[in-house]
Design a protein that fits this description.
Layout (H helix, E strand, L loop, with lengths): L5 H11 L12 E8 L2 E8 L5 E11 L5 E6 L7 E5 L11 H4 L3 E10 L2 E7 L26 E5 L9 E2 L5 E2 L24
Length: about 200
């Protein structure tokens, strides 16, 4: 059996990434998290030149935590932002999360822009900073911490689950990162960098 060189595959995919021209690298959706007055808020910003619709945020517990839930966010016009304060609509979005839950939760934002599904994921442990951000009010071991801070960008990636080739062909299931992902992140094969 011939061994496949994963680095060669990644390099080849990065070179092929120039064919994927649906959106430039700077066009994206960002999420900033803040913990203030014993509650978590997400500030979602649409940096695309067109509206972002069908937006949901799904939360799933980890680290000794079994919370879950999904919230729906209104359509965001190009350049618009929306602040979602945890409201108790489900266990993953409990007001004053740290008073009711041990552990953490990971969140995935999904929406549609220009007819294409986008997805980005983040958690206190896996985010843009490369470090732990206690945006749920718990420390890195899952215990109540209650340190307040203003908005910090936590959205490390944006993924187009079905990328469209310049000629109109679709590569089902392809995952292309239009930014950077923290080293060691356990995602499927993702081409890193701007193209």
């Amino acid at each position: 059996m011939k061994k496949t060189n994963r680095n060669a595959i990644v390099s080849g995919l990065a070179a092929a990434g120039a064919l994927f021209l649906a959106h430039p690298a700077e066009a994206q959706v960002s999420v900033a998290a803040k913990y203030f007055d014993d509650n978590t808020s997400f500030v979602i910003t649409n940096n695309f030149a067109t509206p972002l619709s069908g937006i949901t945020i799904k939360g799933t517990g980890y680290g000794g935590n079994s919370v879950s839930g999904t919230v729906h966010i209104p359509t965001l016009a190009a350049g618009a932002s929306y602040v979602f304060d945890f409201d108790g609509s489900s266990s993953a979005f409990t007001e004053d999360f740290d008073d009711d839950h041990f552990g953490q939760a990971a969140y995935t934002l999904r929406g549609t822009v220009d007819g294409r599904l986008i997805s980005l994921s983040f958690s206190p442990h896996n985010n843009t900073t490369g470090g732990f951000i206690p945006f749920l009010g718990n420390d890195k071991l899952g215990f109540e911490y209650d340190v307040e801070f203003q908005a910090i960008d936590v959205s490390p990636k944006i993924i187009f689950p079905h990328s469209t080739l310049q000629g109109g062909g679709v590569v089902p299931g392809s995952l292309f990162n239009l930014g950077t992902v923290n080293p060691g992140h356990n995602d499927p094969l993702i081409v890193h960098g701007d193209f």
